[in-house]
Amino acid sequence: MKKVVTFLSIALIGILLASCNTKRPAIGLEDQIFVFADSTEYYNLEGTLLDVFAKIIYTPQPEKLFKLTRKNISSLGEFQDRKNIIIIAPLNSNSETSKFLKSILDSNVTKLVMEDSVHVINKYDLWAKNQLVMILTAPTLEKLKKDILYDHDNLVKYFQKISNQRLYQKLYARIYEKKKTEAKLLKKYGWIIYVQTDFLLAKDDSANNFVWLRRAPNTNVERWIFVKWINNASPIYLNKDSVYALRNRITKKYYRASDDTSYVEIADNYLTTTPVNFKGRYALMTQGLWRMTDQSMGGPFVNYTFYDEKSHRLYMLDGSIYAPKYRKKQIIQQVDVLLQSFLTKDELSKDRIEDLLDELN
To answer: Is the pTM of this model over 0.85?
Structure first.
């Protein structure tokens, strides 16, 4: 397996010098990546980069995962405060970008690249806080293409992960936190999830181990989050068919039209389920589209299902949005980030538990 270098040994070149005390938060759009490459090399690499970083997702409208903007390496100083940066070139080239890489890479790193042991070099917070600068390189242009395609999932995840971290910092604010609701859930069920002030506790069904949080019901942008758990469960249910069946049973029971004639179900198209690490647990992450059975409404959803060994519970965390007049990619990402704030009581410090439970006094 190839190594991923997460440090960058550099020469004392002015453009790379930045004081830790003067770094400001990175700026720009979350889904924009600035690609610094020679124009000719970019022409040869563009199709590969678009396949990996700008692939189409459906919400159900087609939206690009990331937007790529090419710049010459000579303009790097103008854009070094952006959130997402890629510097890409093969090392056997005489392009300006290749010369730049050869001038900044430590000799040990260069050796690893030429030995085909490294093709990704990640540097976090290089010129700005919460920034990812990714160097993609290889001995030759053709080898670089192959490496990018081979490692496509990981390359995208690096940018998605730091984007989620930035978004969480933006969403999480104690002043906008409904701590009393969090405390109620902790005391009653032994888990918490970050609850923003504009989320309502729409359903608290203790008999069926189900909690539903809603934001802005009956508006043009709705967000729905539910937590469902099964006591004394078994990890045998961690397969996609069981996940689909359980989610459909839940939404049929709780996500119903006001006249009770239709309900939410999983749509057949654009449905994916992949294994992920959810806070140290094996989990299945499902992404897809939901629809009303009468076809009157629809939108994207994201779902995490995992088994918690300490409590012997199977948890299903699910977030959906309804935003017919808006682009939905960034909204569903916000819901995804909120789902990832979920913690069981065992994962909370004693001080955090006491602080929350004080809200009920």
So the answer is: yes
